[in-house]
Amino acid sequence: MNKILKIFLIIFFLNLSDIHISFTSIKNNIIAKVGNEIITLIELENKINTTLTFANQNINQENIDKLKNISLKRLIDLKIKQNEIKNFNLSINDLAIDDHMQRISNNLNVDPADLKKFFELNKISYNQYENEVRIEFLWQRLISQLYSSKINIKEDQIENEINEILNQKEKITKFKLAELEVNFENENKNELIKVIKSSIKDIGFSKTIIKYSISPSSLNEGEIGWINSKDISNNLLKKIENLKVGEISDEIEVSKSLVFYKMLDKKIDDKTSKMNIDEIRQNIINKKKKELLNLYSNSHLSIKKNNTLIKLQ
Which domains does the chain have, with CATH numbers? Predict the structure, then answer.
């Protein structure tokens, strides 16, 4: 090989190396600063690709563009939660993470032992996703730790609800529900409703939960379990009581969120006098606690967000 050709090849490969380094630096560009935390382009890309992969949607420019804004908002919320969690000595049982990853494996029809390989083959980060799940669980633990003692459910209120249930002569219906909650703050509400309904039609309720839901229940495919018809508000009851199994309600506006419900199952209790009073009592308490903790969670996050310097690069 002559000397000139050798020099040309050396220059060519050096340029290739420079291109790779430049591309890597672009991918790791900081696109947002959230307090002391940063969000990189590669994190956003991974968030979008993971969401699309879980929803079994093509990773193309159209689908990527639809998810850019909401994915960035989710990452901003995660960074705020992460920053707040650092101020407390919190821990969670790793079994909670393992159970969640098991559910993900089942949803993807992948053997749990092969889940990391699935992530790798689809070029998405297992570590980033697992860390996001850990942050969400820790956040739930934090909210419970901070606010459980502030939840004051009056005994006479519980007794009144129990008596109302027991005194009802008509049959009592129980609903097994899944929820999908989206935040419409700084969004066009009507356009967001169209997007959610279109997504449900295209890819189904469960996969739309993966793409859009901000509710803690999204870690469990939106399932919130069985709810007694006498334990819910008239507004919600009107929206869901006539739903058949598999049907989805219209949106219900709660604070700055829209919530959609899917009827997973329903059953009727016609022997109210023989109902377990302890079970009724616990269901009422659990429902009220969940509602209040969700409100505290949204409020706490909103306060922290308002007090956090967020700079988009």
Answer: 3-148 (1.10.4030.10), 170-282 (3.10.50.40)
